[in-house]
Design goal:
With about 140 residues, the chain is mainly alpha-helical. Helix content is about 60%, strand content about 5%.
Length: about 140
């Protein structure tokens, strides 16, 4: 007969990682950054995670998937946990991040165009002259 886990029973780091979709290494990293509150430990020193910790880890994972920085995630976590927050604070962070993503996309698009232009100018044959290297040398 399979054992059924109580909703209140804590998880070890591997179970918390599997349930949240975050690697055990990243769980420890987020904990070291203070994104996760100190978790309980057994007498032997093993971490014991709760369903609430797993929920927080999922929040962090989703924020990382959207490209938020650790500082932004820390701020978003505080707002998420503060039921008296103002949604305008959350919106400000999201819009600033969207603007940063827009700027980075434009920069990468310009880099891509430059590389494609340089590659087009390069013969790519047995000759040693190469406009790509010439451009990098400048």
């Amino acid at each position: 007969m399979s054992e059924v886990r109580s909703a209140m029973e804590p998880f070890n780091i591997g179970e918390a990682a599997a349930r949240s979709g975050v690697s055990a290494k990243m769980v420890r990293h987020y904990e070291s950054l203070g994104l996760l509150p100190d978790v309980a430990r057994t007498e032997a020193g093993y971490r014991q995670y709760t369903e609430s910790n797993v929920h927080t880890l999922r929040f962090i994972r989703r924020a990382r998937d959207l490209g938020f920085s650790m500082a932004e995630i820390a701020e978003l976590l505080k707002l998420w946990q503060n039921k008296r927050r103002e949604s305008g604070d959350v919106k400000r962070i999201a819009l600033a991040h969207a603007e940063d993503l827009h700027r980075r996309i434009e920069e990468m698009t310009a880099m891509k165009r430059t590389l494609e232009q340089l590659a087009h100018c390069c013969h790519g044959d047995h000759r040693p002259d190469c406009p790509i290297l010439d451009e990098l040398e400048r």
